[in-house]
Amino acid sequence: MKLQISAAHGPGECERAAAFALQRLSAEAAAHGIRVEIHDERRSRHGIQSAVITLSGDEVAAFAARWQGTIQWIWQSRIRPRHPRKNWYIGIYPLAETAPVARGDILIQSCKAGGKGGQHVNKTRSAVWATDSVSGLRVKVQAERSQHANRRLAYQQLDARHAALVVEREAVQRHAQHCRHFQIERGNPVRIFVGDDFRERA
């Protein structure tokens, strides 16, 4: 399960809160036998702007539910000691897993080549349809005169199609992560922490 911790473009106090939250979450996870893997941690002068983490182990969903939403930190800023604000908010949200692009057996069907080329092109079955049995991606190749050469090109084209799908899905996930930075609800926190030691308020 993936979670995104975000300071939501907040000031340094929010970045520090995000860093404390990551430390606290990691410690609690270890106590519950849950593994935390940190990805894409964006450090800043005062803490972290954001981080993506993967949780794995038993009861991950129940554990993550205790952290998902707005986290409030009540703290008199040491970064700006005269600042009147004492409430700082960050967000922790689940990220949809990027579904892998499934690959299966490649089914090859010979067919007649179309288009220009005279009698030779129309009568020989040198062209091929190549279909991935799982993803359903399909290409027709007739660029070469031999079926063997067209089969080789078909595999290459399917590889390119799969790679393009992976890039597209990763771009969608990056966009979702970016949008999360603007969706922090400054209120209704799921957990509240206080003080320099980031202790949870009872």
TrEMBL record:
Residues 101-180 form the Prokaryotic-type class I peptide chain release factors domain. InterPro entries: Pep_chain_release_fac_I (IPR000352), Pep_chain_release_fac_I_sf (IPR045853), PrfH (IPR017509), Prokaryotic/Mito_RF (IPR050057). Pfam families: RF-1. GO terms for molecular function: translation release factor activity. Belongs to the prokaryotic/mitochondrial release factor family. PANTHER family: LD18447P, PEPTIDE CHAIN RELEASE FACTOR HOMOLOG-RELATED. This is Peptide chain release factor 2. It comes from Cardiobacterium valvarum.
